[in-house]
Amino acid sequence: MREVAIVAFGQSDHVRDSAETSEVEMLMPVLHEVLDRTGLAARDIGFTCSGSSDYLAGRAFSFTMALDGVGAWPPISESHVEMDGAWALYEAWVKLLTGEAETALVYAYGKSSPGDVREVLTRQLDPYYVAPLWPDPVALAALQARALIDAELTDERELAGIAARSRADAEANPHAQLRGAVPAGEHLVAPLRTGDCPPIGDGAAAVVLAAGDTARRLTDRPAWIRGLDHRIEAHSLGVRDLTDSPSTRLAAERAGAFERPVDTAELYAPFTFQEVVLRRALKLDAPDCTVRINPSGGALAAHPVMAAGLIRLGEAAARIQSGASDRALAHATSGPCLQQNLVAVLEGE
Questions:
Q1: Contact, 78 vs 64, CB < 8 A?
Q2: How are beta strands 103-111 and 47-51 bridged, if at all?
Q3: pTM of this prediction?
Q4: Edge-to-edge strand order for the sheet containing 47-51?
Q5: Lowest mean pLDDT, pick from 1-15, 72-86, 101-115, 326-340
Q6: Residue 238 CB: number of other CB atoms within 10 A?
Q7: CB of 27 within 8 A of CB of 111?
Protein backbone atom coordinates (compact mmCIF):
# COMPACT_ATOMS: atom_id res chain seq x y z
CA MET A 1 0.00 0.00 0.00
CA ARG A 2 1.23 3.50 -0.83
CA GLU A 3 2.76 5.32 2.14
CA VAL A 4 0.95 8.47 3.30
CA ALA A 5 2.02 10.72 6.18
CA ILE A 6 0.99 13.81 8.08
CA VAL A 7 3.79 16.29 7.45
CA ALA A 8 2.42 19.41 9.15
CA PHE A 9 -0.21 20.30 11.75
CA GLY A 10 -1.47 23.61 13.04
CA GLN A 11 -4.35 24.87 15.15
CA SER A 12 -5.76 28.13 16.43
CA ASP A 13 -5.91 29.24 20.05
CA HIS A 14 -9.29 27.92 21.18
CA VAL A 15 -11.50 30.49 22.88
CA ARG A 16 -14.96 30.65 24.40
CA ASP A 17 -16.17 33.33 21.99
CA SER A 18 -14.56 34.61 18.79
CA ALA A 19 -17.31 37.10 18.03
CA GLU A 20 -14.88 39.56 16.45
CA THR A 21 -13.46 36.94 14.08
CA SER A 22 -15.19 35.29 11.14
CA GLU A 23 -14.63 31.66 10.19
CA VAL A 24 -12.31 32.76 7.38
CA GLU A 25 -10.30 35.06 9.66
CA MET A 26 -10.02 32.28 12.25
CA LEU A 27 -8.91 29.76 9.63
CA MET A 28 -6.44 31.71 7.50
CA PRO A 29 -3.55 31.93 10.00
CA VAL A 30 -3.75 28.17 10.56
CA LEU A 31 -3.67 27.45 6.83
CA HIS A 32 -0.68 29.75 6.36
CA GLU A 33 1.08 28.05 9.28
CA VAL A 34 0.86 24.52 7.90
CA LEU A 35 1.80 25.60 4.37
CA ASP A 36 4.77 27.59 5.65
CA ARG A 37 6.02 24.58 7.60
CA THR A 38 6.17 22.52 4.41
CA GLY A 39 7.31 25.28 2.08
CA LEU A 40 4.30 24.62 -0.13
CA ALA A 41 2.07 27.22 -1.76
CA ALA A 42 -1.66 26.72 -2.21
CA ARG A 43 -1.09 25.96 -5.89
CA ASP A 44 1.16 23.02 -4.93
CA ILE A 45 -1.64 21.18 -3.10
CA GLY A 46 -3.16 18.34 -5.11
CA PHE A 47 -6.37 17.95 -3.11
CA THR A 48 -8.18 19.99 -0.46
CA CYS A 49 -10.82 18.62 1.91
CA SER A 50 -12.64 20.29 4.80
CA GLY A 51 -14.94 19.37 7.65
CA SER A 52 -17.51 21.68 9.24
CA SER A 53 -21.22 22.00 9.99
CA ASP A 54 -23.73 24.29 8.34
CA TYR A 55 -25.94 23.88 11.41
CA LEU A 56 -23.37 25.63 13.58
CA ALA A 57 -23.02 28.47 11.11
CA GLY A 58 -26.78 28.75 10.68
CA ARG A 59 -26.67 28.94 6.88
CA ALA A 60 -26.53 26.48 4.01
CA PHE A 61 -23.24 25.83 2.20
CA SER A 62 -21.36 27.94 4.73
CA PHE A 63 -18.19 25.98 4.00
CA THR A 64 -17.90 27.70 0.62
CA MET A 65 -17.08 30.95 2.42
CA ALA A 66 -14.13 29.25 4.13
CA LEU A 67 -12.66 28.59 0.69
CA ASP A 68 -11.85 32.30 0.60
CA GLY A 69 -9.16 31.47 3.12
CA VAL A 70 -7.78 28.67 0.94
CA GLY A 71 -7.90 30.43 -2.39
CA ALA A 72 -10.08 28.67 -4.95
CA TRP A 73 -8.64 30.40 -8.00
CA PRO A 74 -7.09 29.07 -10.14
CA PRO A 75 -9.59 26.19 -9.74
CA ILE A 76 -8.63 23.55 -7.19
CA SER A 77 -9.64 19.94 -6.53
CA GLU A 78 -11.79 20.30 -3.41
CA SER A 79 -14.27 18.35 -1.30
CA HIS A 80 -16.17 18.80 1.95
CA VAL A 81 -17.67 16.54 4.61
CA GLU A 82 -20.44 17.57 6.98
CA MET A 83 -18.48 15.86 9.73
CA ASP A 84 -15.53 16.35 12.01
CA GLY A 85 -12.34 17.08 10.08
CA ALA A 86 -11.01 13.62 10.97
CA TRP A 87 -13.36 12.24 8.33
CA ALA A 88 -12.11 14.84 5.85
CA LEU A 89 -8.61 13.50 6.54
CA TYR A 90 -9.89 10.00 5.81
CA GLU A 91 -11.18 11.13 2.40
CA ALA A 92 -7.88 12.85 1.61
CA TRP A 93 -5.93 9.77 2.74
CA VAL A 94 -7.91 7.60 0.31
CA LYS A 95 -7.28 10.14 -2.46
CA LEU A 96 -3.53 9.90 -1.92
CA LEU A 97 -3.62 6.10 -1.65
CA THR A 98 -5.20 5.89 -5.09
CA GLY A 99 -2.42 8.03 -6.57
CA GLU A 100 -4.77 10.83 -7.63
CA ALA A 101 -2.72 13.36 -5.65
CA GLU A 102 0.70 13.68 -4.01
CA THR A 103 -0.28 16.23 -1.37
CA ALA A 104 -3.48 17.19 0.42
CA LEU A 105 -4.60 20.02 2.66
CA VAL A 106 -7.20 19.09 5.28
CA TYR A 107 -8.83 21.64 7.54
CA ALA A 108 -11.75 21.92 9.93
CA TYR A 109 -13.31 24.65 12.01
CA GLY A 110 -16.23 25.28 14.29
CA LYS A 111 -17.79 28.30 15.98
CA SER A 112 -20.12 27.15 18.72
CA SER A 113 -20.41 30.53 20.41
CA PRO A 114 -23.03 32.23 18.18
CA GLY A 115 -25.84 29.79 19.05
CA ASP A 116 -26.80 27.04 21.48
CA VAL A 117 -24.56 24.12 20.54
CA ARG A 118 -26.43 21.72 22.82
CA GLU A 119 -29.61 22.49 20.91
CA VAL A 120 -27.91 22.31 17.51
CA LEU A 121 -26.49 18.83 18.16
CA THR A 122 -29.97 17.40 18.79
CA ARG A 123 -30.27 17.39 14.97
CA GLN A 124 -28.01 14.31 14.96
CA LEU A 125 -30.69 12.23 16.64
CA ASP A 126 -33.29 9.87 15.22
CA PRO A 127 -35.90 12.27 13.81
CA TYR A 128 -38.95 10.16 14.68
CA TYR A 129 -38.50 8.82 18.21
CA VAL A 130 -35.67 10.69 19.92
CA ALA A 131 -35.25 14.16 18.41
CA PRO A 132 -38.85 15.25 19.21
CA LEU A 133 -37.96 14.78 22.90
CA TRP A 134 -35.06 17.27 22.51
CA PRO A 135 -32.50 15.46 24.67
CA ASP A 136 -29.28 17.43 24.33
CA PRO A 137 -25.76 15.85 24.22
CA VAL A 138 -25.11 16.47 27.93
CA ALA A 139 -28.36 14.76 28.96
CA LEU A 140 -27.58 11.76 26.74
CA ALA A 141 -24.02 11.68 28.06
CA ALA A 142 -25.40 11.63 31.60
CA LEU A 143 -27.51 8.58 30.72
CA GLN A 144 -24.41 6.87 29.35
CA ALA A 145 -22.37 7.82 32.43
CA ARG A 146 -25.08 6.48 34.72
CA ALA A 147 -25.10 3.17 32.82
CA LEU A 148 -21.32 2.93 33.24
CA ILE A 149 -21.47 3.73 36.98
CA ASP A 150 -24.36 1.31 37.56
CA ALA A 151 -22.32 -1.41 35.84
CA GLU A 152 -19.51 -0.62 38.34
CA LEU A 153 -17.08 0.16 35.53
CA THR A 154 -16.25 3.59 36.94
CA ASP A 155 -17.27 6.04 39.64
CA GLU A 156 -17.36 9.79 40.16
CA ARG A 157 -13.99 9.76 41.89
CA GLU A 158 -12.28 8.26 38.83
CA LEU A 159 -14.05 10.75 36.58
CA ALA A 160 -12.81 13.63 38.71
CA GLY A 161 -9.27 12.28 38.37
CA ILE A 162 -9.56 12.20 34.58
CA ALA A 163 -10.77 15.81 34.55
CA ALA A 164 -7.91 16.91 36.81
CA ARG A 165 -5.29 15.10 34.72
CA SER A 166 -6.62 16.64 31.49
CA ARG A 167 -6.52 20.18 32.89
CA ALA A 168 -3.01 19.59 34.27
CA ASP A 169 -1.72 18.29 30.92
CA ALA A 170 -3.29 21.28 29.18
CA GLU A 171 -0.90 23.57 31.09
CA ALA A 172 1.75 22.70 28.48
CA ASN A 173 -0.64 23.27 25.56
CA PRO A 174 -0.61 26.93 24.45
CA HIS A 175 -3.77 26.41 22.38
CA ALA A 176 -5.94 24.93 25.16
CA GLN A 177 -8.98 26.79 26.38
CA LEU A 178 -9.05 25.40 29.94
CA ARG A 179 -6.09 24.79 32.25
CA GLY A 180 -5.40 24.38 35.94
CA ALA A 181 -7.69 23.26 38.72
CA VAL A 182 -11.13 21.85 37.95
CA PRO A 183 -13.91 23.77 39.72
CA ALA A 184 -15.84 21.67 42.23
CA GLY A 185 -19.37 22.77 41.39
CA GLU A 186 -22.72 21.04 41.60
CA HIS A 187 -23.93 18.42 39.16
CA LEU A 188 -24.65 19.87 35.74
CA VAL A 189 -26.75 16.86 34.80
CA ALA A 190 -26.29 14.06 37.35
CA PRO A 191 -23.92 12.28 37.57
CA LEU A 192 -21.92 14.75 35.44
CA ARG A 193 -20.35 17.86 36.91
CA THR A 194 -19.01 20.82 34.94
CA GLY A 195 -15.50 19.36 34.89
CA ASP A 196 -16.81 16.14 33.32
CA CYS A 197 -18.06 18.04 30.26
CA PRO A 198 -16.23 19.73 27.39
CA PRO A 199 -16.04 23.52 27.16
CA ILE A 200 -17.96 25.40 24.50
CA GLY A 201 -15.45 27.05 22.22
CA ASP A 202 -14.40 28.22 18.78
CA GLY A 203 -11.36 27.00 16.89
CA ALA A 204 -9.79 25.64 13.72
CA ALA A 205 -7.14 23.12 12.73
CA ALA A 206 -5.34 21.98 9.58
CA VAL A 207 -2.94 19.29 8.45
CA VAL A 208 -0.96 18.62 5.30
CA LEU A 209 -0.71 15.06 4.00
CA ALA A 210 1.90 13.84 1.54
CA ALA A 211 2.76 10.52 -0.08
CA GLY A 212 6.02 8.59 -0.18
CA ASP A 213 9.19 10.49 -1.02
CA THR A 214 7.24 13.74 -1.20
CA ALA A 215 6.56 13.42 2.53
CA ARG A 216 10.23 12.76 3.24
CA ARG A 217 11.17 15.84 1.24
CA LEU A 218 8.73 18.09 3.10
CA THR A 219 9.70 17.14 6.66
CA ASP A 220 12.56 15.42 8.48
CA ARG A 221 10.27 13.01 10.35
CA PRO A 222 6.91 12.27 8.72
CA ALA A 223 4.12 10.81 10.85
CA TRP A 224 3.21 7.81 8.69
CA ILE A 225 -0.40 6.68 8.73
CA ARG A 226 0.01 2.91 9.12
CA GLY A 227 -3.69 2.24 9.44
CA LEU A 228 -6.97 4.16 9.41
CA ASP A 229 -10.53 2.90 9.73
CA HIS A 230 -13.92 4.12 10.90
CA ARG A 231 -17.08 2.30 12.00
CA ILE A 232 -20.57 3.22 13.20
CA GLU A 233 -22.98 2.00 15.87
CA ALA A 234 -26.71 1.53 15.39
CA HIS A 235 -28.54 4.87 15.26
CA SER A 236 -31.09 3.86 17.87
CA LEU A 237 -29.70 4.36 21.37
CA GLY A 238 -32.07 1.71 22.73
CA VAL A 239 -30.41 -1.16 20.88
CA ARG A 240 -26.87 -0.25 21.94
CA ASP A 241 -24.85 -1.18 25.02
CA LEU A 242 -23.80 2.30 26.08
CA THR A 243 -21.10 0.92 28.39
CA ASP A 244 -19.11 -0.43 25.43
CA SER A 245 -17.89 0.80 22.03
CA PRO A 246 -17.61 -2.15 19.63
CA SER A 247 -17.23 0.18 16.65
CA THR A 248 -14.08 1.69 18.21
CA ARG A 249 -12.70 -1.78 18.90
CA LEU A 250 -13.37 -2.92 15.31
CA ALA A 251 -11.91 0.26 13.79
CA ALA A 252 -8.79 -0.16 15.93
CA GLU A 253 -8.45 -3.80 14.90
CA ARG A 254 -8.77 -2.94 11.20
CA ALA A 255 -6.27 -0.09 11.60
CA GLY A 256 -3.72 -2.45 13.12
CA ALA A 257 -3.71 -0.86 16.56
CA PHE A 258 -3.49 -4.21 18.36
CA GLU A 259 -0.56 -5.56 16.33
CA ARG A 260 2.05 -3.76 18.45
CA PRO A 261 1.84 -1.54 21.54
CA VAL A 262 1.46 2.22 21.16
CA ASP A 263 3.13 4.76 23.44
CA THR A 264 0.67 7.63 22.97
CA ALA A 265 -3.11 7.76 22.58
CA GLU A 266 -5.01 10.92 21.67
CA LEU A 267 -8.63 10.02 22.40
CA TYR A 268 -11.56 12.22 21.45
CA ALA A 269 -13.47 11.80 24.70
CA PRO A 270 -15.66 14.90 25.12
CA PHE A 271 -16.83 13.62 28.52
CA THR A 272 -14.63 12.11 31.25
CA PHE A 273 -16.46 8.77 31.41
CA GLN A 274 -16.08 8.30 27.64
CA GLU A 275 -12.34 7.97 28.17
CA VAL A 276 -13.13 4.95 30.35
CA VAL A 277 -15.26 3.44 27.56
CA LEU A 278 -12.56 4.09 24.96
CA ARG A 279 -9.72 2.77 27.12
CA ARG A 280 -11.60 -0.50 27.53
CA ALA A 281 -12.39 -0.75 23.80
CA LEU A 282 -8.79 0.03 22.83
CA LYS A 283 -7.23 -2.26 25.48
CA LEU A 284 -5.59 0.64 27.29
CA ASP A 285 -7.17 -0.05 30.67
CA ALA A 286 -4.66 -2.54 32.11
CA PRO A 287 -3.27 -1.49 35.52
CA ASP A 288 0.29 -1.64 34.16
CA CYS A 289 -0.52 0.32 30.98
CA THR A 290 2.14 2.98 30.33
CA VAL A 291 0.49 4.62 27.32
CA ARG A 292 0.37 8.41 27.62
CA ILE A 293 -3.30 9.33 27.15
CA ASN A 294 -4.22 12.80 25.87
CA PRO A 295 -0.96 14.61 26.69
CA SER A 296 -2.49 17.66 24.98
CA GLY A 297 -5.30 17.81 27.52
CA GLY A 298 -7.79 16.39 25.04
CA ALA A 299 -11.30 17.56 24.30
CA LEU A 300 -11.88 18.37 27.99
CA ALA A 301 -9.40 21.23 27.61
CA ALA A 302 -10.49 22.49 24.18
CA HIS A 303 -13.51 21.37 22.17
CA PRO A 304 -14.08 23.19 18.88
CA VAL A 305 -16.93 21.14 17.42
CA MET A 306 -16.05 19.68 13.99
CA ALA A 307 -12.31 20.23 14.55
CA ALA A 308 -11.63 18.37 17.81
CA GLY A 309 -11.25 14.97 16.10
CA LEU A 310 -8.82 16.30 13.50
CA ILE A 311 -6.87 17.88 16.37
CA ARG A 312 -6.46 14.45 17.97
CA LEU A 313 -4.80 13.17 14.78
CA GLY A 314 -2.73 16.33 14.54
CA GLU A 315 -1.58 16.17 18.17
CA ALA A 316 -0.57 12.53 17.76
CA ALA A 317 1.32 13.37 14.56
CA ALA A 318 3.05 16.32 16.25
CA ARG A 319 4.40 14.01 18.96
CA ILE A 320 5.69 11.62 16.30
CA GLN A 321 7.38 14.47 14.44
CA SER A 322 8.97 15.89 17.58
CA GLY A 323 10.35 12.48 18.57
CA ALA A 324 8.24 12.32 21.75
CA SER A 325 6.43 9.28 20.36
CA ASP A 326 7.31 6.42 18.01
CA ARG A 327 3.89 4.79 17.59
CA ALA A 328 0.71 6.68 18.43
CA LEU A 329 -3.00 6.01 18.27
CA ALA A 330 -5.50 8.75 17.41
CA HIS A 331 -9.26 8.50 17.82
CA ALA A 332 -12.15 10.68 16.67
CA THR A 333 -15.87 10.41 17.29
CA SER A 334 -19.09 11.95 16.07
CA GLY A 335 -22.73 11.61 17.03
CA PRO A 336 -24.43 10.92 20.38
CA CYS A 337 -22.82 8.57 22.90
CA LEU A 338 -19.79 7.67 20.75
CA GLN A 339 -21.95 6.66 17.79
CA GLN A 340 -19.31 6.95 15.05
CA ASN A 341 -15.64 6.24 15.68
CA LEU A 342 -12.44 6.57 13.68
CA VAL A 343 -9.05 5.17 14.69
CA ALA A 344 -5.65 5.88 13.14
CA VAL A 345 -2.22 4.42 13.89
CA LEU A 346 0.75 6.72 13.28
CA GLU A 347 4.46 5.87 13.30
CA GLY A 348 7.79 7.55 12.75
CA GLU A 349 10.34 6.24 10.25
A1: no
A2: parallel
A3: 0.97
A4: 78-81, 47-51, 103-111, 202-211, 4-11, 223-232, 340-347, 327-334, 264-266, 292-293
A5: 72-86
A6: 9
A7: no
∠ Cα 335 18 339 (to 5°): 5
Dump the DSSP string for 119-186.
HHGGGGS-TTTTGGG---HHHHHHHHHHHHHHTTS--HHHHHHHHHHHHHHGGG-TT-S--SPPP---
- By the 8 A CB rule, do 228 and 177 touch? no
Is the Cβ–Cβ distance between 44 and 76 less than 8 Å? no
Q: Are 220 and 191 in contact (CB under 8 A)?
A: no
* Residue 163 reports pLDDT greater than 80: yes
Per-residue pLDDT tens digits for 91-111 = 999 999 999 999 999 999 999
- pLDDT at position 73 is 75
* 103, 44 Cβ separation under 8 angstroms: yes
Measure Cα distances from 232 to 120, 190, 249, 341, 343 in Å.
21, 27, 11, 6, 12
